[in-house]
Every structure is written in C-alpha cells, then in structure tokens.
Design a protein that fits this description.
Blueprint: E1 9-15, H1 22-34, E2 40-43, H2 60-71, E3 75-78, H3 88-102, E4 108-109, H4 128-138, H5 156-162, E5 165-171, H6 176-179, E6 195-202, H7 205-211, H8 214-222, E7 226-231, H9 246-256, E8 260-261, H10 265-274, H11 283-300
Parallel strand pairs: 1-2, 1-7, 1-8, 2-3, 4-5, 5-6, 6-7
Length: 301
C-alpha cells in the first residue's frame, strides 16, 4: 500500500471506553499528544446500566476533557450510546446529544459486548458457515436486535444514514490489512450498515505491549502495512498513582520516530476507500475472514 505524504506505513488506535475516566486515561492521551500520534476515542452518552463503569458525556468534567481531546486532533466516536440496553428512542436522542455536544454525528460505531441494541452482533457478525455454527453455540443466551425492524432496540435505519464505519473482527497480528486486505467493505446481507473494518488485538495493557513491540513495528514498516489497534486504555495502562506504563511509553516512543502515518482510524479508512474500485465483497471472502478469525481465537486461548 502506498500511504499519503510518502509515509512507509499507517498506525492508529481505537480506545474502547469501557471503565474509563479522566484519571485512568488522561496520562495516555497526554503522552500520545507529545509524540504527535492522533487516535480514536470512543464514548458513551448515557451512564452505564450494567456491570461496566466509566464516565460519560453526562459528566461535565469528562465532557470538557473529551472536547479538549477533539480540539487536539483526536477523533471521538461511538461505543453505543451507553453500556446496557437502550431503546430506539433513547439511541436517537443520544445521537442528537452527541452532535449537540461534539458538533457532528458519529460516523463510526463499535458494538459494546452485550448491548441488546448492537448491530449485526453475535452469530450475525459472520458469514454463512460460521454463522450457523455460532448460532447453535449461542442458542438463546444472547440476542442482539439493533438491526431487527420489529424490535424496540432497532436503530438500523438511523445507523445506515449516519454511521459509515462499523468494526467487526479482531486479529492477533500487527498488520491488520494483511488479515483483511479489502477493508473497509460492504456486505449485501447487512442492509442496515455501510462499511465494515477489522482491527488488531491490543485488548489490555499486556496484549497491547505484546502487539506493539519494536520488532512488530519494524515488520509493519517492512510490509508497508496498516495497524488499527483495538484496546481498552482503562485496562491498567495507568497505575493507581497515575503513572503510565514504561513499556508502553518505550514502544510508542520508538513508533513515533518511524516514518508512519499516525492519524485517527476514520481518516485511514477514508483513504482506503479512495483507493478501492469495489465496495462489496463475496461470501467466500467473508468465510475466509471468519476462518482467520477463528484460528486466531483458538491460538489465543
């Protein structure tokens, strides 16, 4: 891939807002700012209704912090309107509040693990082969209704209008584009969505540090690749004394000295779209992605 401004590779991070507050994420964003690495921060509009904690846009100090991140060049996007189940009416109201507070509607959405209002989640994430298998495993344990018209949780039409990119699969390797070379793409079956993309797994501090190493950064550079790390900055990156992890700092410092394109995920995905001739992918491509995802899942366990 040829990247803008003669950059050798592209790297970005999407920070899942689970359990995050100013104290446990601000040192990270201060450090990223100092290294001129701009990334994506997801937010909730409403307070949590389940076991997850974390500040939301209803908290005035947190809202001011998010606005400051936005003004510093970080991209603010959606992780559902909150943690828990939210009705169509609440989702529409939440999206309007997002726009009122941050100046635009979100155009990227990340499904939160257990929300009933998730879009094409659970077994519906996958192609036909894995979808049928996962449906049997899932049974009636989990159901996701954001794309089901007759549900009180339906908001698929709103997502189709406002949300351009939705994240799906997560892979173990540093070069996300090597796993999913056709992203972002459309799926004909998923009529209430636009473009889907993949990411690389940096779920918590340990996994992030195992992924974003100097050797892996060098590998990404050699392959002229793209890494979209999906992580939870609230997961121990900052200790109880407010100190940022030293290994994280060391690897990010090394990364920042390379000739990489360090912009938010939305900007990278828009660039990838501009290089594409076809939007839709075949069912066989989806099945191959699913197989890669499953293999990585097994390896991780």
């Amino acid at each position: 891939m040829n990247w803008p401004k003669k950059k050798e590779f592209a790297f970005t991070i999407i920070d899942d807002t689970d359990n995050s507050n100013i104290n446990n994420i601000k040192p990270i964003y201060d450090y990223l700012t100092s290294k001129n690495i701009k990334t994506t921060k997801t937010v909730w509009i409403y307070p949590s209704r389940d076991r997850y904690t974390g500040q939301t846009l209803q908290n005035n100090n947190y809202y001011k912090f998010i606005k400051l991140l936005k003004s510093d060049g970080f991209d603010i996007q959606l992780h559902n309107v909150g943690s828990g189940n939210f009705s169509r009416t609440e989702i529409i109201k939440g999206l309007d509040e997002f726009k009122q507070k941050l100046g635009k509607y979100p155009n990227m959405h990340i499904n939160h693990c257990s929300n009933a209002d998730n879009l094409y989640w659970g077994h519906k994430r996958f192609g036909m082969i894995l979808r049928k298998t996962m449906q049997i495993i899932e049974g009636s344990k989990k159901r996701f209704y954001g794309d089901e018209i007759n549900s009180n949780y339906f908001w698929g039409d709103v997502a189709k209008e406002k949300i351009k990119f939705i994240r799906n699969r997560v892979f173990n390797g540093i070069n996300t584009l090597k796993y999913d070379p056709k992203m972002p793409f459309r799926e004909k079956r998923k009529i209430f969505s636009n473009y889907w993309f993949s990411s690389s797994d940096g779920h918590n501090l340990k996994q992030f540090n195992n992924l974003v190493t100097k050797s892996n950064i060098d590998k990404l550079k050699r392959e002229k690749g793209l890494c979209i790390v999906y992580t939870h900055f609230a997961s121990d990156f900052v200790d109880h004394q407010g100190k940022l992890d030293e290994i994280f700092k060391e690897n990010i410092n090394y990364l920042s000295k390379q000739n990489g394109w360090f912009v938010p995920a939305n900007e990278i995905l828009e660039y990838l779209l501009s290089q594409k001739k076809k939007d839709y992918v075949s069912s066989s491509y989806i099945n191959k992605l699913d197989l890669r995802w499953l293999i990585d899942k097994i390896k991780k366990k």
